[in-house]
């Protein structure tokens, strides 16, 4: 997670954990490669890339796929 976002998210950590019984541990880690507003969530079941840049890449790819239909 971006350093600028850690304070905001850290304050919400316990509230988030309390909503999900299956979460035993939640570690928030700074990563200089992640832009503000984004994060990567790693679990035993896989990874969720919620970086803004990755979301924009997926949107661009979908538009390209859509435009190739016409």
Describe the structure concisely.
With 70 residues, the protein is mainly alpha-helical. It is 47% helix and 11% strand. It has one domain (3-67).
Name the features:
single chain; 70 residues; mainly alpha; two-stranded antiparallel ribbon; 2 helices; 47% helix; elongated; T3SS_Stator/FliH; transport; Flagellar assembly protein FliH; Flagellar_FliH/T3SS_HrpE; bacterial flagellum biogenesis
Summarize the structure in words.
With 70 residues, the chain is mainly alpha-helical. The chain has one domain. The chain is built from 2 helices and 2 strands. The protein has helices spanning 3-19, 52-67, and strands at 40-43, 46-49. Strands 1-2 form a two-stranded antiparallel sheet. Strand 1 (40-43) and strand 2 (46-49) form a beta hairpin. The N and C termini lie far apart (39 Å). The model has no long low-confidence stretch (mean pLDDT 90).
Number of strands: 2
Averaged pLDDT, please?
90
Main beta sheet: strand number and arrangement? 2 strands, antiparallel
β-sheet strand percentage: 5-15%
Low-confidence parts, pLDDT < 50 over ≥5 residues?
A: none
How big is the Rg? 16 Å
The chain-level structural class is mainly alpha
Order of helices and strands: HEEH
Domain Flagellar assembly protein FliH/Type III secretion system HrpE: 1-59
Function: Needed for flagellar regrowth and assembly.
Family: Belongs to the FliH family.
Protein name: Flagellar assembly protein FliH
């Amino acid at each position: 997670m971006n350093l600028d976002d850690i304070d905001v998210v850290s304050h919400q950590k316990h509230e988030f954990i309390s909503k999900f019984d299956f979460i035993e541990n939640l570690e928030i880690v700074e990563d200089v490669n992640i832009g503000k507003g984004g994060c990567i969530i790693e679990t035993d079941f896989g990874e969720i890339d919620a970086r803004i840049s990755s979301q924009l890449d997926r949107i661009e790819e979908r538009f390209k796929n859509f435009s190739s239909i016409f």
